[in-house]
Amino acid sequence: MPYPWGFMSNETLGARVRFSPVILAGGSGTRFWPRSRRARAKQVLALQGERTMIQQTLERLQPVAEMSDVWVITNALLRDVIQAQLPEISVEKVLAEPCARNTAPACALAAFLLERTEPDTVLGVFPSDHVVANPARFAEVMQAAIKLAAAGENIVVLGVQPTRPETGYGYIEQGSMLAADEPIVAHRVKRFREKPDAHTAERFLAAGNFVWNGGIFVWSARTLANAVREHIPEMAGPLEAIAAAYGTSEFEAVFAKEYAECENISVDYAILERRSAKGEKRSNIFCLPADFGWNDLGSWSSLHEHLGQTPQDNVMDGETTGLFAIQSKGNYVYAPGKTVALLGVDGLVVVETPDALLITTSARSQDVSKLVRAIHESGREDLI
Amino acid sequence: MPYPWGFMSNETLGARVRFSPVILAGGSGTRFWPRSRRARAKQVLALQGERTMIQQTLERLQPVAEMSDVWVITNALLRDVIQAQLPEISVEKVLAEPCARNTAPACALAAFLLERTEPDTVLGVFPSDHVVANPARFAEVMQAAIKLAAAGENIVVLGVQPTRPETGYGYIEQGSMLAADEPIVAHRVKRFREKPDAHTAERFLAAGNFVWNGGIFVWSARTLANAVREHIPEMAGPLEAIAAAYGTSEFEAVFAKEYAECENISVDYAILERRSAKGEKRSNIFCLPADFGWNDLGSWSSLHEHLGQTPQDNVMDGETTGLFAIQSKGNYVYAPGKTVALLGVDGLVVVETPDALLITTSARSQDVSKLVRAIHESGREDLI
C-alpha cells in the first residue's frame, strides 16, 4: 500500500505544511515526589541533563517547527515557571487550564483555536515530560508524521517497540504496513488498547504487532476538530466558545466557565479508541515508530535505568560530593551536596529534598503516588 | 563464702571510702558515622535522650561520687567539647591523651595519679558511651562494688547477663558465688575471655556462667597501681613520671613524651586476663551483676532496638517532622527536620547529616567502621 500522500513530493509538502506543536504540560507529577511537587512538576525539573524536561521537549522540536507556532497548555501553578523556562514561546501561547480535564479538552482546544484561522495547520501533541535519546531521528520521524497528517484526514500516532510486558502503558495494535520502501515504516492502526493486565500484556508482547502508545499524536486542526465534533460532540460547543474568545478581554472568564463544562477524559479514550472502532481502513489512523530512544521516565526506577549503564550500577544523582559503596548495587540516590555511603544494600531508591526524605525500592517506586495520596489525605499540603 | 569485707558494716565502710570515677572518653566513635566524627565522637552525642552520652554517664555517678573526685580521660580533639558539656568537672581533671593508647595506660595513669596522695581511694573506670536504663539500680550496684574494692586487694568487674551469642563483646567466666544473702550477688571470676567466635559464643551462652564484660572496673588506686607494676611493669615508669609531673609546668611535655612509650593495650588484656590466670582464689577478681539495663549502643541497629518498642517499629530519630510509612517495618531513620516517607522497605538504617547520607541495614550496621576506613583511605578527611 502506498503512502497516502500519493503524488506529493517531500519537498513540495514540506514547503506547504505549517506545523504547530502543542506541548501538554499540565501534569501534577506525583511520581517523582519528593522532588516533584504540584508547583514544581516533573516537566519543569532537570531530571536528566542540565535542562528541564519541557526545555528538552521544545529543543527537539526546533528542527521541525517555528518557535512562534508552539503552544503550551499547562495549569495556573506551573505557568510562571514554564514561561521563565521557555522564553522563546510567546506569552499568549502559554495557556493555563482553569481546571484539570485530562488530554482530550486540551488537544481539542488547540484544534479549535487553529481551525479558526488555519484549518490545514498540522498539529502535534507532545507530552512535556518524556526523554528522547536520539533527537535527530525524532526530527526525521516527525517530518514523516507531519507529511502523513497533512495528506487528508489522517491521524498519526507514534508507537514504541515494547521491551517488556509493561502494564502501565496503553498499547496500539498495528495492522497492515504501508509502503515498505519509504524510509520510515508506517502501519495502519487496528485498535487502541487500554493499559492491560499482566497476562494480556504478555500476550501483546508475544503477538509482535503491538506497540506502546508513546503519547504523541499528529493531525491537522480540521481533522482533530471534526473528530471532536464526531466523537465528543458535547465538548465542541464549550471549546468553540473559548476559541472565539481567545485574544479578547473576555477570554479568562470564558475559559474558566466553558472549560469546566468539558468532560475529564483522555484523547486516547475520547477520540482514538472510538475512531479506531470504525475499522482499520475507515479510521485512517497510522502508526509511526517512535524509534528515537523514547523513555517516559515514569518513575524513579525508570530514571535510574535511564541514567545507569547497567541495572547493577549505583546511580548518584543531584551532584553528590562522593560515593562510597560496599557490597551494594543497583541503588539510585538523589542527595544534592552530600557524600553517599552505601553498605550492604541493593535496589533502593533514596531521594532527599530540604524538607523530605523518600526511601523505597526500584520495584515499588511506581507506587510513590500512593505515598503522595497519603500525605495529601493527612493534610500535609506543604509537602505536596 | 562470706563477702570479703568481713566484719565491716556498710555504713562504716561508706563513710570511710573515697571514690574517684575515671570516665574514659577517648573513643573515636566510628560506628555512629556519619553523626559521629573524630571531633564529635559518640560520647558527646545525644544519641538517646536530650543529654549526651557522657553527660548521662556523669549524671548517674552523682549518687555515688563527689563531682570534684571525677576524672575524665579523653583526647585533644574532644577536650573542649567535653569541658563544655561537663562544667561540673574541674578543668585540671580532664586529661587529653597526647596519643591513643587504649584503656590500660589510661586506667593505670589514673591509679598512679591517685596513689601519690590517697592510695586507698577506690577508683572506678567507666566507659562514657553506654546507656543505663535504671540509674537507681546502677547506684546500688556501684555502692556494693566500691565496698568490695575497698576491702583489700580486690578487683571488681561488672558482668552483663547475655541475651544472645554476641561475638562483639568479651566474656567473663564466673566461678563460685559469694554470700547469697547479700542484696547483690557477687561471683569470683574464673577467667576473662576475649571476643569469641560464633560457636564459642553459643557454648558460653549454653554454659550459663558466662557474662558479657560491661567495661566497668573498680579497684583501689593501690591495687591497680600494683597490678600495673606486676603485669605491665614497663608501663609503670612512664606513668609514674607523668603522675609526678602532674600540676607542674612540665606536665604537658612529660605527658606527651612518656605516654607515647606506653604499650597500646586494653586493661582487660594487660591486667585482668593476666591476673585471672593466677586462679580464681588468688586473683581476687569479683564480678557483680550489671543488672541495671546496660546497653553499649554499639551500632545503629542497637540504638534502633533501644529506641523502638519492638523490632518491627519504624524509629524516626532527629526530630523528624513526620512519618509516612506504607508496607515498611523495622527501619531506623535519622533525618533532622525532614518528613520521612517509607514505601516497601524493611530493616534499613538511614542516617543523614548536612554533608553525608548513610544507607545500610540493621544487619550490616556494625560494619559502618569499614565504610569509615574506606573514606579515610580515600583521603576524604573532611568526613571523618
Q: How would you name the CATH homologous superfamily of the largest domain in chain A?
A: Spore Coat Polysaccharide Biosynthesis Protein SpsA, Chain A
Beta-strand residue fraction of chain A:
15-25%
What pattern of helices and strands is seen along the backbone of chain A? Answer: HEHEHEHEEHEEEHEHHHHHEEHEEEEEEH
Chain pair with largest interface: A-B, 43 and 43 residues
Measured distance between first and last alpha carbons of chain A: 51 Å
* Rounded mean pLDDT score of chain A: 92
Largest sheet report of chain A: 5 strands, mixed, barrel
Q: What global shape of chain A is seen?
A: globular
CATH topology (level 3) name of the largest domain in chain A: Spore Coat Polysaccharide Biosynthesis Protein SpsA, Chain A
Task: Give an account of the 3D structure.
The structure is a homodimer of 384-residue chains. By secondary structure, chain A is of the alpha/beta class. The first copy, chain A, folds into two domains: 10-295, Spore Coat Polysaccharide Biosynthesis Protein SpsA, Chain A; 300-383, no CATH class. Chain A is 34% helix and 23% strand. Chain A has a five-stranded mixed beta barrel with strand order 6-9-7-8-10, surrounded by four helices. A four-stranded mixed β-sheet of chain A has the order 12-14-16-17, covered by helices on one side. A two-stranded antiparallel sheet of chain A has the order 5-11. In chain A, strand 1, helix 2 (53-61) and strand 2 form a beta-alpha-beta unit. In chain A, helix 4 (103-117) crosses helix 7 (221-231), helix 7 crosses helix 8 and helix 8 (233-245) runs antiparallel to helix 9 (251-259). Chains A and B meet through strand 13, strand 15, strand 16, strand 17 and helix 13 of A and strand 13, strand 15, strand 16, strand 17 and helix 13 of B.
